[in-house]
Amino acid sequence: MLHINPKMLGRLEELEADLLARLRQAEGENWLGEVEGINLTLTFLRGKREETQRRARRPTVELGIPARRLPGAG
To answer: Residue 34 needs a FRET pair 20 to 30 A away by CA distance; which of 8, 61, 68, 71 works?
Structure first.
């Protein structure tokens, strides 16, 4: 599963703008297969953006560094 770094949210906005421009052109040219593909890609992109925003709002959890066990101790 690909997780997007929250710092890249701006790039997702750029990609969405480009896809919307391509969608308008495809609709104008009546390229139905292209329209369907772009809409599917937009759905995935928006889902990834929402997931990334949700993950960015969650607090990080410090797990610490595990301690090394000494032989015979335990």
So the answer is: 8
Whole-number Å distance between alpha carbons of 71 and 74 = 8
72 within domain boundaries: no
Tell me the three-class secondary structure of the chain, residue by residue.
CCCCCHHHHHHHHHHHHHHHHHHHHHHHHCCHHHHHHHHHHHHHHHHHHHHHHHHHHCCCCCCCCCCCCCCCCC
In a domain, 21, yes or no: no
Number of domains in the chain: 1
CA-based R_g, the chain, Å: 21
- Count CA within 13 A, CB hemisphere, residue 71: 0
Report pLDDT digits (tens) over 17-63.
999 999 999 999 999 999 999 999 999 999 999 999 998 898 878 88
